[in-house]
């Protein structure tokens, strides 16, 4: 009898958070200036989901983690060199834009289709993980829509903790208003969990994990299917507006966190 | 806590991914299998499979090598077709070249009597010379400096492009974010490398998340970790240098990639080199990439004897020189960074090979100090080593010192890299005796192909650096210098700004786009990475020496303001701001107690660093 979970993590790259991004109008729609040159990192929300997935898999023998990533193939290859050393997973690559200028619906369609093509996936053991704000401009919609397409009705949004009891019951802590958590129990998979920050730190780089992962990464990239999402897929963007940005740097030493928070809050209010 | 250190065996392990390792892996990987995928170079650790080749790079991505590069690209052109090179992002051909002598429009620059005489002569002949905006465009560029047939690259983009090709081949594995701590020895044989420990405190003490660095054992260790790489340094310390060789000349290159304004007056392919300002000893460059992107920067050599040498402020004064500002006004900083350059050239060449290891690239003394070219030469040395490895592997011969000498070193000695480096070997000696003597010396060396050189005694930087009082004594009374030092120490600030302000340098008017604060450059210029769980890689060998140090050049010269004044007079290091340029390693006025060739600052293997691939 098969044991353990089949954890599918949805996660791809985003431009490094410290970069100043500049939208540009291309022939097929909006995109990011110098997108292919921008340093990219794993979407932090998806990163939490991936680390939580690895934690669940490690605790339940027989489990397996897939990382389903939608992004430009060349950038995905670059990203994998960084994250493949973190935790064991098998990559499922989908070649398409990750500029952020797309609709959660398009992305969900592409990701669900990729998941359905995973040959060894046992849907009865499926835990669908993703970042709660990923690929949806913070709308928290993508994981839900992927879940719907896969027929997963037990869905949890903005989760910070998953525990599994001996009888296989899953308890999920979801963030709700007022700094409170909603604890929900579900009898078992399949279920979809869109993670907030989780509770696990980023694992150290492990060369042996990297080498094991890399055996599957290059073939996965070579057979990546291509999709058209966002403007390429027919989405029309009526207008683009940059958030106001103001940068002020001051060097301080030995200032307590509370004092920093107070000062920042006052600055924002002003 | 019980230490469980894992071990892995491979055929070849490479340390550091830069142009040299890129050349090595590109050449080697092309020879590992045939068109049908059959093994041509068989692995010893996995019989039947191709050679197992691993490469570990400290930076979190394959783009730490921050610099614009102009190169004749002889070696790169031998490895790639013109179409392939044209597909490297930000690459273009050189179309126009200028060398500019920058005069001082402010009057704050420290110019010797000879330089002032040159300036006076230029002023007198202003109408008759191609001079404008306080700058003279040299009417003739010596052949040894010409790059007319060359290419402009972004080194970060070139590294990423090469890395992508290599990883796409599936024949080698390159792992960024994995610093190598040290070589592994069996007697005098290098048998691989040890990766850094993770899950440790700043002082290296294990925490609950301790993960000892893995030992990667290999028949051949390829050391391409650059001028301040920890493995290269340790090999230097263990095996010493060939007689007459030493690494005493350095430079810090501080650079930025900027997006030029539409009316900047420059075109893709334009190359500008400068000298003479902000101080005569500081050299500058401006290379224009396609799409109005440009690489700009300065080099501050170790023979510029200011103990308060700050690359960042000098970079800003350089950019605002009228001759350059007319092009740079309205630009926006896209990335920023700094890197140490090993400026000893062939004289800094260590033992290139030993049992089980070979040195390639800048750390192996490949940079040509006459032409100022290093990337192409580094690539060439990697290619030469790969050709040697292919020959030895096919013949079933081990990677012994003798076999590597007969193949790799022999190829290198017979190549243009070594020939040109030989010509250049004494090209810069004159700078050790003065700026003008250095310029004349370079000209002599270049024009006579190394037959005539200007002499100059080459000593380690710590033997050159004067005290603050001596350097600034003609401008600021000693008592005031001491007061400035005391005031800055109390405020936790470097002294360079106060001393430069007092010496007549105007404050930089920040525009928030190109002229930004040093801290903003750290934020705008790339990404500062300092994952937790790694030990500090910058430490001070003897803190008592630091506490009594009057110069503390490490603070003023630090490219990222990562070394700042600390309690009891001992500088403190902040790993989160370190950009791994390595300038602190040689920018110290005190020798190491046990080794007069080294300084009191130790620069070891560490994680993190700032980088942006747009470099």
What does this protein look like?
The complex is a heterodimer of chains A (270) and B (615). Chain A is α/β, with parallel strands linked by helices. Chain A has one domain (6-241): Rossmann fold. Helices cover 29% and strands 26% of the residues of chain A. Chain A is built from six helices and 13 strands. In chain A, a hairpin with a 2-residue loop joins strand 3 (23-26) and strand 4. In chain A, helix 2 packs antiparallel against helix 5. The radius of gyration of chain A is 19 Å and the shape is globular. The N and C termini of chain A lie far apart (62 Å). With 615 residues, chain B is α+β, with helices and mostly antiparallel strands. Chain B folds into four domains: 7-84 and 156-246 and 346-423, FAD/NAD(P)-binding domain, CATH 3.50.50.60; 91-152 and 247-343, D-Amino Acid Oxidase, Chain A, domain 2 (2-Layer Sandwich); 426-458, no CATH class; 463-611, no CATH class. In chain B, 29% of the residues lie in helices and 23% in strands. Chain B has 19 helices and 29 strands. In chain B, strands 1, 2, 9, 10, 11, 14, 20 and 21 form an eight-stranded mixed β-sheet that branches. Chain B has an eight-stranded mixed β-sheet with strand order 6-7-5-16-17-18-15-19. A three-stranded antiparallel β-sheet of chain B has the order 3-8-4. In chain B, strand 6 and strand 7 (135-137) form a beta hairpin. The two termini of chain B are 43 Å apart. The model of chain B has no long low-confidence stretch (mean pLDDT 94).
